[in-house]
Amino acid sequence: MCDWLRSIENDPPGTMLGKEEQKALGLVKELLSEADISIRDGEKLSAATLKVWAGTFDDVWVWGSIFPCMQAVNIVTPVLAKSLRRFAEEIQSDEGRESRILDTFRVPSTYGTM
């Protein structure tokens, strides 16, 4: 989702979106609005979306548990949230440059394609 939003943000001004793309973009904006997330002037939609996902992984009420097997999730999710926020900051600050953090989220080619 983030890569698609970034591609739209990096398209030349006046580039037309297809009907399905317009619908998907409208849904993303609607979801952010319903979550009371306002996009500041100059903020990229892709970065704002990553911040929302990071917040999801930070919330204890979503991931917290009394079961011992959930301890690993309680360790991993804050790290994932921190990585998503760093990626969002990088998107916001790097105009069109290849992401250094993006490699963190790439699936190695040894896993093959689905």
Topology:
Blueprint: H1 2-10, H2 19-34, H3 45-58, H4 60-63, H5 71-93, H6 102-105
Helix pairs in contact: 1-3, 3-5
Explain this structure:
- The protein has 114 residues and is an all-alpha fold.
- It has a domain at 1-10 and 41-108.
- It is built from six helices and no strands.
- The chain has helices spanning 2-10, 19-34, 45-58, 60-63, 71-93, 102-105.
- Helix 1 (2-10) runs antiparallel to helix 3 (45-58) and helix 3 (45-58) runs antiparallel to helix 5.
- The longest helix has 23 residues, at 71-93.
- 12% of the residues are buried.
- The mean pLDDT is 76.
Secondary structural class: mainly alpha
Sheet with the most strands, sense and barrel status: none
Alpha-carbon distance between the two ends: 17 Å
How many beta strands in the DSSP annotation?
Answer: 0
Q: Report low-confidence residues grouped into runs of 5 or more.
A: none
Task: Report the average pLDDT across residues.
Answer: 76
Which strand-content bin applies to the residues?
under 5%
Number of helices: 6
Give helix and strand order, one letter per element, not per position. Answer: HHHHHH
- State Rg: 16 Å
